[in-house]
Amino acid sequence: MCGSSGAGDVNPEDFRGTEQLSSSSEEAASRYLEDTRDFYENDPGGIAQVEAGRRWITRVEGGTPLTAEELQAGAEAELQAAATLRGAQALSEALERGTVVIEERDDGYLDLTTPNESTTFAYLTLAFVPGDGGGYMGVEFGYELPALECDRAPED
After folding, report:
1. SS3 sequence, the chain?
2. What value, to the nearest 5°, has the Cα angle with vertex 26 and ends 40 and 109?
3. Which residue, 7, 3, 150, is CA-closest to 87?
4. What integer pLDDT is reported at residue 63 of this predicted model?
5. Core-most of 74, 135, 148, 155, by most CB within 10 Å?
């Protein structure tokens, strides 16, 4: 199970001079991840989804895939909630330890990823808005849980 959430076609330039921008990439990453964790750790709806999702993750990592009926009944959303929190926690820990991998892309965005030895892969893409009132903001967050399948290819 892989997932991502992003700003889609949001133009970071539209956020110039707002509280959405941070003066450093580390501050922007911390704020984005804190907001993500806050929802899943403190909002009653988020907490309930994460608790149910953790049970699904345990089951899938144990080798029992989810059925189509379970996915349609809400297991996918619950699994994504737990995986999102797990990814945000892993990336937050890497940021705090100073082991986060930062890569500047050709298009000017920064990708922050968990280190290779991390059991959970997660990334956060930051955009930089230059000029007065500019700064960094998170535009896409994603995760991958190694024991769960991503983009399962159809069988021939």
Report:
1. CEEEEECCCCCHHHHCCCCCCECCHHHHHHHHHHHHHHHHHHCHHHHHHHHHHHHHHHHHHCCCCCCHHHHHHHHHHHHHHHHHHHHHHHHHHHHHHCCCEEEECCCCCEEEECCCCCCCEEEEEEEEECCCCCEEEEEEEEEECCCCCCCCCCCC
2. 95
3. 3
4. 84
5. 135
Q: Could you tell me the two tokens for 11?
A: 């133009």
pLDDT digits (tens, 9 = 90+) for 98-118: 999 999 998 889 999 999 888
How large is the C-alpha radius of gyration of the chain? 17
pLDDT tens readout for residues 15-70: 676 677 888 999 999 999 999 999 999 999 899 999 999 998 888 888 888 888 88
Q: Write down the pTM of the prediction.
A: 0.80
Q: Residue 27 is encoded by which pair of tokens?
A: 């501050």
User: Phi, psi at residue 76, to the nearest 5°?
Assistant: -65, -45
